[in-house]
Design goal:
It is a single chain. The longest helix is centred in the first third of the chain and has 37 residues, at 63-99. The chain is mostly helical. It has helices at residues 2-7, 9-31, 63-99, 101-115, 119-130, 134-160, 164-171, 176-184, 189-212, 224-231, 239-267. It has a single domain (2-267), classed as MetI-like (MetI-like fold, Orthogonal Bundle), CATH 1.10.3720.10. Helix 4 (101-115) packs across helix 6 (134-160) and helix 5 crosses helix 6 (134-160).
Length: 275
């Protein structure tokens, strides 16, 4: 498995793109050169210089420092919401696919209801009632992407539960818990792993969109989407203000999507060059 990963060029490129951002997220406080919240009314919208590597924003705050620390809330929300969506979707899909009947109808119709709403509109509606913040965003985005994991899990369980080895375990008196844990779950993980990487990219984009609209990460804490939203009014005065957070956001999403594509090629035997 590990050998196949490092033989895949797309996987290597995606790791090289994402690794710097992960290191920056971990080592951020050690890298920043200025207080990201410090206001300097004298140096407003300054171009890059020796003092301010990437320039300053409309409050004279260092763009580089805010850019470095802005990755943390974005990744926390993306990883936390994806983990929540995976857990809830996996449980829902597992139960619906295995037991069928009323359980299937109840759970999958709930999933369909969530899928009826565009994610950004539903997120805006929920934020309007509950407020914003990292914890709220994790919960909201996690719920929004739960249906994707639930449907993938459900379809996988439907295919696997009728196979001969599952019927053999059932005839030997194995409990439903054992069948689900040992027989079904390990054999439906490949598409779910791929979906994790795709959901992380979607969650990053959704969090950035909400922060861009002013209902995501609460100021003055830095966030890439929030920085882009604030910079849109100063494009002509300070192009670098909007360029750098946009570039970081694009590279992170691109790297995550490439990782998903490479994992699909590696985990799917039909697409694997070695088969």
């Amino acid at each position: 498995m590990l050998k196949r990963c490092f033989r895949n060029r797309t996987f290597i490129i995606s790791i090289l793109m994402l690794l710097p951002f992960m290191l920056i997220a971990i080592l951020g406080p050690l890298i920043v050169t200025h207080d990201p919240l410090a206001i300097d009314s004298v140096n407003i919208l300054k171009p890059p210089s020796r003092t301010y590597i990437l320039g300053t924003d409309e409050f004279g705050r260092d763009i580089f420092s805010r850019l470095i620390l802005g990755i943390r809330p974005t990744l926390i929300v993306a990883l936390g919401s994806t983990g929540l969506a995976f857990f809830l979707g996996f449980i829902i899909g597992l139960l619906a696919g295995y037991y069928g009947g009323v359980v299937e109808q109840l759970l999958m119709r709930m999933v369909d209801i969530v899928l009826c709403f565009p994610p950004i509109l539903l997120a805006l509606m929920i934020v309007a009632f509950w407020g914003s913040g990292i914890v709220i965003l994790i919960f909201i985005i996690g719920i929004l992407y739960t249906p994707h994991f639930a449907r993938i899990t459900y379809s996988g369980v439907i295919q696997v539960k009728t196979l001969a080895y599952i019927e053999s375990e059932r005839s030997l008196g194995a409990s439903s818990f054992r069948i689900l844990k040992r027989g079904i779950s390990p054999n439906i993980m490949s598409p779910l792993i791929i979906q994790v990487s795709l959901t992380i990219a979607s969650a990053i984009l959704l969090e950035a969109g909400l922060s861009f609209l002013g209902v995501g990460i609460l100021p003055p804490a830095p966030s890439w989407g929030q920085m882009i939203g604030a910079a849109k009014g100063y494009v002509m005065l300070s192009p670098n203000y909007i360029f750098w957070p946009s570039l970081c956001l694009c590279l992170t999403i691109l790297g995550t999507n490439l990782l998903g594509d490479s994992l699909r090629d590696i985990l799917d035997p039909k697409l694997n060059n070695e088969t």
